[in-house]
Amino acid sequence: MQFIFDPITVINLLFCIGIVIISVWWQRRAGSFTPLYIGLAFGLFGISHTAVLLDLKAPLEIPLIFVRGAAYVLVFVGLFFIAREVLTRQKAEGELRESERKYRDILDNIQNVFYRTDGEGRLVMASPSWARLLGYASLEECYGRNIATDFYQFPEDRKRFRERVYKTGSISDYEVELKKKDGSSVFVSTSSHLYYSDNGAVAGIEGIFRDISDKKLAERNLILANEDLRFANEQLRTAEESLRKNLQDLARSQAALEQARKKLNVLNTVAFQDIRNATFTLTGYGELEKEKATDKRLIMFFEKQEGILRTISDSLKFAEYFQSLGLTPPVWQAVQNTFLIGISHLDLSQYSRSLDVRGLEVYADPLLENVFFTLAENVVLHGETATAISLSCRTVQGGIVIIFEDNGVGISYPKKEKIFERRFEKKRGIGLFLAREILEITGITIRETGEPGKGARFEIFVPEGVYRFTGDRTP
Predict the structure, then answer these.
(1) Which fold has domain 331-469?
(2) What is the pLDDT of residue 179?
(3) Is-contact 162 121, C-beta < 8 A?
(4) DSSP alpha helices (H): ranges in 293-334?
């Protein structure tokens, strides 16, 4: 290895170094990682030029080809992202111009008067209705003029108004008497407030004027309006009495409904027990008959009968769980303890376990442990090659995601949503259907995101306000 001085190559190397430095500066200034693609590409070009200067081109010819190829790919990627950012910026600028145009249209067509004064009380902005209200030909005649002396009939009114706005920050329905160009008066009601500059200092006052010249005429009709108001109050009292009676009737109806619900629960419980006992008895007799049967066809019928009885039993279990949903108020539950209780009903001795949810609590239905039981049971029933399960969590925008996954065969893409349906492949999805229903009581959602062939992965999204961390654990 020896150094070969080639001015062109040295210049190219210095150029690449300069581009890398500029890209890093660009990235820090713009806050976008796009420039780093260009910087990395020219960094690879710089490596290629360095190899030429060190006379390593021949022994490293094949690697250098890949290095240059990668550099060209990064240049293409960088240019693509730069072009996309430019187009995005152009679109945003277009939308901003359209928004400004709409704002200007609203300001031009507003019926009430919008105005803005600076800290010295000079008019700096107004809607065209300002000029129409005060009898001016255009706004240009009004801009820059002192609002107290040129537009208030009595300047001391402006002084009191200004003191009140600066003291409270805003004012609503404040009546003032303005002066038109010809000196006549116009009565207006204003709702105004302070506005601030970019550095947080008070920049002036802005607000809305509403012409209330017709108010005087309205006041003449006040006596008649008061009479109507008294009549309306009588009607209101009658309506309140009727509403009170309706609320009492509603309360009695709710009590009757609660009583009916309790009776229905008792009836369902008795019916479930009777059917379950009958099913158990039929299963026992079926086993006895099957043991004595010798005809293969008859044995096949017994097996089908057993399948139907199992289906009835599963449906009873499903109905019992579904009936219990939402009856007990949600509570805060430690995820790790609830998970361990849920899977304690299964034999998972052949699976290794990894838990990383210490300190995490969620606000959910007390049946939450059944959700974890269902997820673990699916591993036992359908994981096939699974040898490990894990439960972890990570914070995301708007909440936290609890992740349950295994390393089994996974779930194919067409079935990722179907497994949550009420009936799917001989009720294989009954458990997951109930799991989703249990979680949705407090706004929690679940979905399957695993890669087929690499294991199942269930993501449980818990929104903000429905989870918390206790002890030393932090998000």
Answers:
(1) Heat Shock Protein 90 (3.30.565)
(2) 92
(3) yes
(4) 296-324
